Each structure stands twice: as C-alpha cells, then as structure tokens.
Amino acid sequence: MGKDARGGTAPKLSKRDVLVATGAAIGALALPDMVVGQQAGWPDPGAARAIAAAAHRDHPGADLFNEDALTDVIALMNTTDGRVVLANRVQQDFALSRTCVVDGWLLSRTEVQLCAASSLAVS
Questions:
Q1: Is 9 helix (H, G, I), strand (E, B) or coil?
Q2: pLDDT at 123
Q3: Beta bridge partners of 9
Q4: Which one in 14, 56, 69, 80 has a CA-CA gap of 20 to 30 Å to 121?
Q5: Which residue has the higher pLDDT, 7 or 92?
Q6: Where are the domains of the chain?
Q7: Angle between the N-to-C axes of helices 67-77 and 80-95, in degrees from 0 to 180, rounded to the nearest 10
C-alpha cells in the first residue's frame, strides 16, 4: 500500500478496478467494436479515478498528466475515430515498451492517461 495525499494509507487497486477502467482500451485490441461502438465508454468512473490516483501517487510529476495530453485524450474519447486512435496507441505502447507500473500493475501510458482523462471528464 502507498501513502495518499494526506499521508494515510491508500487502498490497493483491485483486479476489478484495473480491468474495469482499462477494459475499453484493452478490449479494443481483440474486439475493436467494443471501443468504437455506440456503447463505448467507461462503465465505472470510480475505477478510472482509483487508477489515476494510484498513478499520481506512484509517478508524481510524470509527464503522463500533462494538461495538453489529457485534453487531447478527452477529445479523442468523444469520437468513434478518436477511440480507434486511442486503442491503437495502447497497442503501440505495449509494442514499444511505453508502459508504467501502477500499484503493481503494468499499464500502457495511454491506459493511464485514459484513466486520468476519464476522471477529469466526469468530474
């Protein structure tokens, strides 16, 4: 367990949190229609927020959370073509080892940005 912003113990991410929040991007690699279909979106914004918070805790000051990059991700999340771009970015991240460990989970940089951007979009 890590420390939260107040110095207390932060809860460990559950497997469910990771799968729910990153499922749309990961699912696109096997089933693109999951992401680009009319029903695309985050089924559980709380899970995305939990991953974004853990990523901030594990990688403080990382360029993952650059405001311009997150604004770009939010714009891409809102269109079918943009969701295809994001799904491709996730695949490229893993192929090029653009990954980071968040609370013990290996995630692509784009997945982390999706969680952070999703958190901003629903706030």
A1: strand
A2: 52
A3: 3
A4: 14
A5: 92
A6: 15-122
A7: 130
The tokens for 78 are 């809102």
- Interval 29-82: pLDDT, tens: 444 444 444 444 554 678 888 888 999 999 888 888 888 989 998 888 888 888
Residues recorded for the chain: 123
Q: For residue 28, what are the CA distances in angstroms to 2, 39, 99, 123? A: 31, 13, 17, 25
Residue 50 tokens read as 């939990």
**Average pLDDT value over all residues in the chain:** 75
Q: Provide CB contacts within 8 A for 26, sequence distance 6+.
A: 90, 111
Residue 49's nearest CA partner among 84, 75, 9, 10 is 10
- Alpha helices by DSSP H, listed for the chain, are 15-30, 32-36, 45-58, 67-77, 80-95, 109-122
Q: Which two tokens stand for residue 52?
A: 């974004």
